[in-house]
Amino acid sequence: MLQLSVELRRLCISYLDNITEKLCETVDTLKQLRLVNKDIGIIATEFLFGTAVLRSTDESADACQELAQSPFSHLVRRVVAYTDTFESDPQDESTLLESFAAAVGTLPGFEQLQELQLKFAVECAAVPDYTVGEGYLRDVCETPEYRSAVLKVVFGALEGVSTLRVLSIRNLRDHMDRQIL
Questions:
Q1: 10-residue block means of pLDDT along the chain (181 residues)?
Q2: Does a structural domain hold residue 92?
Q3: Strand (E) or helix (H) holding 166
Q4: What is the DSSP secondary-structure string of 11-23?
Q5: Does residue 135 belong to any structural domain of this protein?
Q6: Contact status, residue 168 vs residue 118, Cβ threshold 8 Å
Q7: HSE on the CB side for 137, CA within 13 Å?
């Protein structure tokens, strides 16, 4: 691999990088690849820190804040922010975690941030649909007010990001709410 050009090395290492999710095996492989050679280590470091994943947990928020203040913050090009916790016993997601809001506030700390993916939970609390029946409503943690608060924090933080080129929001809702508008 050392005889390959930089472009080919970068292409080989890019297959290890999973764009939307940082899987444990991928992260471990990239960490080990950094130790192989100085030239390969530079490329692996770029991919390792190229995407930051932020979840709505205190641990993830703390890790994101540490990354924003680290010497590697200039390598972050993409942030993927999940509003749900993906835990089997999730916390009450109807209120915005202060640590999550603080971590979103550190987005301007990523000087080369080009893409932000904001991913809400698939289900959101809705107004009762009487044509379907009362059984339609389920216990859903994310409310429209919660999503509105998240969007307010995100857009407030993005005012300080001049390099952003792509903003994607998933699972917002299937109708335009006045709060979001």
A1: 73 60 63 77 82 91 94 93 66 75 95 94 61 51 82 94 94 69 65
A2: yes
A3: strand 166-170
A4: HHHHTT--SS---
A5: yes
A6: yes
A7: 12
Count of domains for the chain: 1
Beta partners for 78?
51, 115
What global pTM score does this model have? 0.75
The one-letter amino acid at 85: T
What's the rounded Cα separation, in Å, for the pair 93 and 121? 10
Does a structural domain hold residue 82? Answer: yes
Domain boundaries, position 164: 49-170
**Per-residue DSSP letters for 98-134?**
HHHHHHHTTGGG-TT--EEEEE--S-------TTT-G
Amino acid of residue 121: A
Query: For position 108, what pLDDT does the model report?
Result: 95
Q: Alpha-carbon distance 64 to 19, whole Å?
A: 17
Cα–Cα distance for residue pair 165/116, rounded to 1 Å: 9
- Phi-psi category of 86—alpha, beta or left, where left has phi over 0 and alpha has psi -120 to 50? left
**Type of residue numbered 165:** R
